[in-house]
Write a structure and sequence with these properties.
Layout (H helix, E strand, L loop, with lengths): L1 E8 L1 H10 L5 H13 L16 H10 L3 E8 H19 L7 H15 L12 H8 L3 H15 L5 H6 L6 H8 L2 H20 L1
Antiparallel strand pairs: 1-2
Helix pairs in contact: 1-5, 2-4, 7-10
C-alpha cells in the first residue's frame, strides 16, 4: 500500500539525494534504500524526535534552517517496519519512547544515505544533537540564569508575577514544567548560590 506524504525538509538534503538517484524517482530510490536498511544493522545518526522548546526558538530555528515542502510516495508496510526499528534505537540510545513521525523518518533515511556516501552537507549542523540542544532547547540552567539576572536587577529574588512579566526565554509555564513550581525553582537557585559560596570559602 502506498501513501503520499507532504512534508517540510531541508532543500539541500532533498536535492542532494535526488541528484544521486540518477534516473530513478526519489520515491523509488527511497523505497530501495530503506529495504536494504531494514536488512542490516545501522546506527541512528541523530535524535530524530527532538523538539524546539519555545515559539521564539522555533522562529530562530526556522530562520537558521529554512525548509521547503516536498512530496514523496511511501510504502506504508515498509515504513511501519522502519518505525518499529527506529523506535527501538531511540529507546536504546536516547531513552525516548515517543514514536517518530513519517517526516522525521524520511529525513533521517535521506541523511543516513548522505553519511554512508560520505557526502558532507552545508547544513550538517541541522543534524547535530549537541548543536540543537545548545541553541534550540531550554534547560533548567536557562531558568536559573534568568532568575539570576532578575536578582541582579531587583536586589532580591523576583515574585512569580515579576518573573512572568519579564518575558524572554524560560517562561513561567516552562519553569513549572522543569521544577514543578516557582517555589521549587527559587529554592534550587538559593541552593546553588550557597554551593558556590561554600566552594569560594573552601
Amino acid at each position: 500500500m502506498k501513501k503520499c506524504l507532504s512534508m517540510w525538509i531541508l532543500p539541500e538534503l532533498w536535492d542532494t539525494v535526488k541528484n544521486s538517484c540518477e534516473n530513478k524517482k526519489i520515491s523509488h530510490f527511497f523505497e530501495e534504500y530503506t529495504s536494504n536498511l531494514l536488512l542490516r544493522n545501522w546506527e541512528i545518526p541523530y535524535q530524530i524526535n527532538r523538539q524546539v522548546s519555545s515559539y521564539r526558538l522555533r522562529a530562530k530555528f526556522s530562520d537558521d534552517f529554512p525548509l521547503q515542502r516536498k512530496r514523496i510516495s511511501l510504502n506504508t508496510d515498509q515504513m511501519n517496519d522502519l518505525k518499529q526499528q527506529v523506535q527501538n534505537k531511540l529507546l536504546l540510545h536516547y531513552g525516548s519512547e515517543e514514536p517518530p513521525s513519517l517526516a522525521a523518518l524520511v529525513t533521517m533515511v535521506l541523511y543516513l544515505f548522505c553519511k554512508e556516501q560520505n557526502i558532507i552537507l552545508h547544513n550538517e549542523l541541522f543534524f547535530s544533537d549537541e548543536y540543537f540542544s545548545s541553541r534550540y532547547v531550554l534547560s533548567e540552567q536557562s531558568v536559573l540564569e534568568k532568575m539570576n539576572e532578575m536578582f541582579g536587577k531587583l536586589g532580591r529574588l523576583p515574585t512569580a508575577r515579576e518573573y512572568a512579566e519579564a518575558g524572554g526565554e524560560g517562561s513561567l509555564s516552562y519553569l513549572k514544567t522543569i521544577f514543578g513550581s516557582f517555589s521549587n525553582a527559587k529554592a534550587e537557585y538559593v541552593l546553588r548560590i550557597q554551593d558556590k559560596s561554600n566552594q569560594f570559602l573552601e
